[in-house]
Amino acid sequence: MGSGRDIGVRAPQFRRVKKINIRFRIPYYTQWGQNLLISGSDALLGNWTVAQGQWMTPRHEGESLVWQALISVPDHFETQYNYCLVDDKFNVIKWEAGSRRFLALPQGIEDGATVDVHDSWQVGTSPEILMTRSAFKKVLFGKGNDHEGKEITVETSPFVSEINVQDSVAVRFKVNCSRLESGQTVCVLGSASSLGKWDNEAAVPLYRVGGSLWQAEVMIKRADFSLRYKYILRNRAGDVVPELGADRELSLDTSARMPSTLIVVSDGFFRARPWRGAGIAVPVFSLRTLDDVGSGEYLDLKLMIDLAVKSGMRLVQLLPINDTSVNGMWWDSYPYSSLSVFALHPLYLRLQALSKNLPQDIKEEIEEIRQQLDLKEVDYEATLAAKLAITKKVFLLERDEVFSSPAFQQYFEENQGWLKPYSAFCFLRDLFGTSDHSQWGRFAVFSNEKLERLTAPTSHHYSAIAFNYYLQYHLHTQMVEVAEYARMNRVVLKGDLPIGVDRNSVDTWVAPTLFRMNASTGAPPDYFDRNGQNWGFPTYNWEEMAKDNYGWWRARLTQMAKYFSAYRIDHILGFFRIWELPDHAVTGLMGRFRPSIPISAEELECEGIWDFNRLSEPYVRCHLLMEKFGNRWIEIANKYFDETQHLCYQFKEEFNTEKKIASSIQLREDSPQWLIQEAEETRKGLFDLLHEAVLIRDSENPRMFYPRFALEDTASFHELDDHSKEVLKSKYYDYFFQRQEKLWTDNALKTLPVLMNSSDMLACGEDLGMVPACVAPVLEELGLLGLRIQRMPSEPGQEFGIPAEYDYMTVCAASCHDCSTLRAWWEEDEGRRARYFKNVLSYSDTPPANCDTRVAHSILQQHLDSPSVWSIFPIQDFMALKEEYTKRPAKEETINDPTNPKHYWRFRLHVTMEEILQDLDLIAIIREMNVTSGRAILTELPELASSPGSDMPNGEIKVQKTSSTKSQGNGVIANSCRSPENLKSLINGEVKTDKLEIREGVV
């Protein structure tokens, strides 16, 4: 008998998994009730589920509060992670800014060893946070980031075999560095012998581990701690650029029960002088070239990019470029009312680029139309009609060839999710003669089944559908060509993300639940209009959008990123709260914020306020009618009002909204002027009376109220008793400036991070208007740039913004597309002009009546000298630098009039881009301003043949302003140098001034 063992089967061999202790530590000050935790991709860190993340414990170290967490992991552990601030119930207060961190343990660590991970909170306001965005890492610094060295892996690093040396500690130095010149590498040096003892030649080179992250592992003797060190940039010739600031320090925790085997030091960013750049803003339709037909076109932007490069600018900013063809008339010139947030606008198509084999008769037709439409301003309707007509002719000639091409098939495959609904919508719009899809019968309600039948290739109308595929494909191809041209020339192309969509759009047809169609968006009274603005867009149903993690927004940003490396978020305040108006409103005055916390009837009753009808209905009395209409008051009262009691009136049902009043006062176009004026006075007077309310009743809950904006301006308020006035003023202030702050903060932190994480584009927020206190901290936390327009200062009590006092994380400008140009603004108000001339420009003489070149130069230069990361100016303001371009009346250069909801967006340059590019004097003026302000470096600029600065030496000048200039910059030359001749003299060493300090000579 055997023993019972099956000696033919060998027992399995198991490798014992090593366990490594990781001790995370990060200094961070919290408030009572706040805690830090680590959330990451590994199960030990919660698989990105915050409530399952690793809780941290605070500990005082000297004057610092350091949070720590200790976990035990297998030796092959790697994870992505970030730090998160939460309350006691795991509600997220905020995440740190920047990209996700990555940790991978090297092989060869002994079982039971301890790894210390030293991190610091990633702050959104860090200038280097911007460098992680595609505008910088792929465009501006793309060349330097194409590092030629080999990336060393953990397995090939010599560090692995030395990691367990008893008298030493292994240190992994990690730092982000985006701004590298070709041939430069990142090194670390310091006080330890293994760090070269501050000898630049003995500095330890770091290796690139992906993106802009560099690291190196160094064995450092325990006796060499506490350690002092710095990072440097070194090129092949041995030239060194040290980082700014004090030495970094690293100490050993000698009190720790488990001494460190490996210390991972995440040092954030290489500390360089904050980068600053300049840009030029122009709507595509405003460009004029020798090839365009009726308006600027996408391919014209290549000439604008050339202008930017020659003049030392690194950004071209556009208005929205999406299709707005809703009404089939010039109203569609409004670029912020999208027909589709994905489709490009046919107005900007280059007809000559449709085919390499255009028939001669079509070429001749294009040239004939080009000459006919070469007008002072854009003829929107004629231009769009001509382009569509010719495109259809070419489509019929080459449809089969294009549709069978691999390029088109790839485009269709990648875009059909929005392209098919868009093309079907355009077909139905033309079929029914309206974009109001509620009028489309059985097609009023969208479904995928109906869409597939409409777009089936076998349908008799397929050619009409397919035409839009063809059109959008060519628009995409041309825009991609521009985007690539910008990237190759290291110019950032900046787009614009409108806050709304037209209520009769593809998006509201396909996904109606994402929108509140019974409401309208706008802005409360502001700098532009005392009655506020009503944009007419439906407001968003954020609760519905959140169900798929804001998929619609993520898709929009993904589409934009195909063309742009930066974008402007139009009316970013809308992501905190939107000014919502009832759909029967015409003006923007009688709105309320959504979301917001209303004032309850109970609140008011506790304060002795109870007559809610008196406060929330239009307060119309006999004496008010007489004040508004004079001798006509009885006629107006009889037609529009019912007398409810003696001398008290209420609007009749057929006139009790703004839209009803507006539609009742319609005149023929050939009406006499006196009648037109009388009708306008009647409309305005009735609107004013309709606005005579102190509270606005919630349409869904009659016991809830919102204070009417500027309620103290109403007669209704002035005729209340003193107690009621004080109560209502208190509730007004509380509603607009206090009670909503946390609600709006939470709302923005739900939505804005989704936008920013949907792409790596650089995001800039248009934060103008009535800005809540919560906006600035949120933008700071997220690393979002704000906007500073000098005539609309963000500081209370200021008449004009002071560019020298702007924050780095801002975009500054003297004007924008929503206001008058620099020249027009100067002419508008004599008193304001005098105050600005004296108090801002510091001139003692009488200001000129017109914005001459001296004034324009001073205003632009003070913005360029500001600390703002970007100074971006409309092209009209740059053209004010040369007298010959100022012959056109300044008012004709305005792009938009925000007070006019039906403004015709049609401004065109009065000279071609080809002429501007040949104007070497203007280009030299602009580039000199950019160089002297530190927003351009001479060695990066192309030579200008026959220009005043064409004989400048081809060497890099490293100059820095002293503190007296109130400005920072990369390679800055002080204000005393203002002409190309002076600049040349400075470079040749001929200018002597105590305002200049030459740094590090010439490389």
TrEMBL record:
Domain CBM20: residue ranges: 14-123, 163-277
Cell compartment(s), UniProt: Cytoplasm
Keyword Cytoplasm: yes
Major place of residence: cytoplasm
Gene Ontology CC annotations of this record: cytosol
Catalytically driven reaction(s): Transfers a segment of a (1->4)-alpha-D-glucan to a new position in an acceptor, which may be glucose or a (1->4)-alpha-D-glucan
Record InterPro entries: Carb-bd-like_fold (IPR013784), CBM20 (IPR002044), GH (IPR017853), Glyco_hydro_77 (IPR003385), Ig-like_fold (IPR013783)
Keywords annotated in UniProt: Carbohydrate metabolism, Cytoplasm, Glycosyltransferase, Transferase
Record keyword Glycosyltransferase present: yes
PROSITE patterns linked: CBM20
Top-level division of the source organism's lineage: Eukaryota
UniProt-recorded name of the protein: 4-alpha-glucanotransferase
Source organism (scientific name): Marchantia polymorpha (Common liverwort)
